[in-house]
Specification:
- The model is unreliable at 1-11 (pLDDT under 50).
- A 6-stranded antiparallel barrel has the order 1-2-3-6-5-4. It has a 6-stranded antiparallel barrel with strand order 7-8-9-12-11-10.
- The termini are far apart.
- The protein has helices at 2-15, 22-34, 69-72, 217-230, 250-255, 274-277, 309-317, and strands at 38-43, 53-61, 64-67, 78-81, 87-96, 101-106, 130-135, 143-153, 171-174, 186-188, 194-202, 211-216, 236-237, 240-244, 264-269, 284-285, 291-293, 297-301, 304-305, 324-331, 334-341, 343-344.
- The radius of gyration is 23 Å and the shape is elongated.
- It folds into 2 domains: 1-234, Thrombin, subunit H; 236-344, PDZ domain (Pdz3 Domain), CATH 2.30.42.10.
- It contains 7 helices and 22 strands.
- It is α+β, with helices and mostly antiparallel strands and 348 residues long.
């Protein structure tokens, strides 16, 4: 143990600070490595007001920056401020609204630093582990904060735009202080790897009663790979519009023998989609759109029960085009299983 302690002591002295523990040294090194790779994302939008939009991004390759889709969604011109104070223009290369991610291209300048995604599955990350966050809260920075990995699970509260980020099955949660402007910040472990991309704050600024929410690294890395190769995400697509059972009149559920509100009804099946090819049946509605008869009810995906339509979408999104997925359905008063082959979500 003595050589290890001596190494940490020498590293602390080299940093020129009174860092007294290995964790402090590791944290300082992570921040030092991350700072050159993190950028402020800024632009003007018709809906943003006089101050414009501010967020954070980080280089994942010499000319590519990852940020949140909601940060750049309406921006007419995107400007990045680098760690050394330089300002450069960027443009959207490709976007993935399903998990609230955007990939930007930077021209005329090479990244002063690059961050890599962790290859450790988020489900294997221990709760309570130390995490570092680097970004531009309120446009100021780059500033670092520190906290723990507080949890892992679905986001069960309403978001400002429910059409964005609906395909994330589970998020990372952290108590590391973050606020407006931190969207798109990298969430790092103490080895300097990105374990998540900050997407939101629930309940107010973190550290003042709020919790930071981040997209897991494996999902973000998969999206970046897809966007680079195909220009669109390649998560699995069902090809059916859904309605949560809890949104339906109980009398209709009882009429087909359902005693639960856990699940999602197939409302409409898109032609030539995986759902159509597997024979899924949609609901029957009259000319005014009133529900006359239930469609198939999805109870589980590959044996995992689903509570509502969001969980069906998130479970399906975990798989890739070409994967075979087994759905447990309730149809005409009986339970049955259907296997379908997933496709990529079509480009709109």
């Amino acid at each position: 143990m003595r050589p290890l302690f001596l190494a940490f002591a020498l590293l602390a002295l080299a940093l020129g600070q009174r860092l007294v523990s290995p964790e402090e040294v590791a944290r300082s090194q992570v921040i030092k490595k991350a700072l050159p790779a993190v950028v402020r994302v800024q632009g003007t939008s018709p809906t943003a007001g006089e101050g414009g939009v501010m967020g954070t991004g980080f280089f994942v390759s010499p000319f590519r920056v990852v940020t949140n889709y909601h940060v750049v969604q309406d921006l007419a011109e995107i400007t990045l401020r680098l760690y050394d104070g330089r300002t450069v223009l960027a443009e959207r290369f490709a976007v993935d609204p399903g998990i609230d991610l955007a990939l930007l291209t930077v021209r005329g300048v090479q990244a002063p630093g690059v961050l890599g995604f962790s290859k450790t599955p988020s489900s294997s990350l221990p709760l309570g582990m130390g995490v570092v966050l680097v970004g531009f809260p309120y446009g100021q920075g780059p500033l670092a904060s520190y906290g723990i990995l507080a949890g892992l699970g679905p986001l069960e509260v309403a978001t400002p735009d429910p059409s964005i980020g609906t395909e994330v099955g589970e998020y990372l949660f952290t108590d590391a202080p973050l606020t407006v402007g931190n969207s798109g910040s990298p969430l790092l472990n103490l080895q300097g790897e990105v374990i998540g991309v900050v997407a939101d704050v629930v309940g107010g600024p973190s550290g003042v009663g709020g919790i930071g929410v981040a997209i897991p690294a494996e999902l973000a890395a998969q999206s970046v790979q897809d966007l680079e190769r195909f220009g669109i995400p390649q998560r699995g697509w069902l090809g059916a519009s859904l309605v949560s059972l809890e949104e339906l009149p109980p009398v209709l559920l009882r009429a087909v023998g359902l005693t639960t509100v856990q699940g999602a009804m197939v409302d409409r099946v898109e032609p030539d989609s995986p759902a159509a090819r597997a024979g899924l049946r949609g609901a029957q509605r009259d000319a005014q759109g009133r529900l006359l008869a239930l469609g198939d009810v999805i109870l589980s995906v590959n044996g995992k029960p689903v509570r509502n339509k969001a969980e069906v979408v998130r479970q399906i999104a975990r798989y890739r085009p070409g994967d075979r997925v087994r759905l447990t359905l309730w149809r005409e008063g009986r339970r049955l299983e259907v296997t379908l082959v997933l496709m990529a979500r079509p480009r709109r």
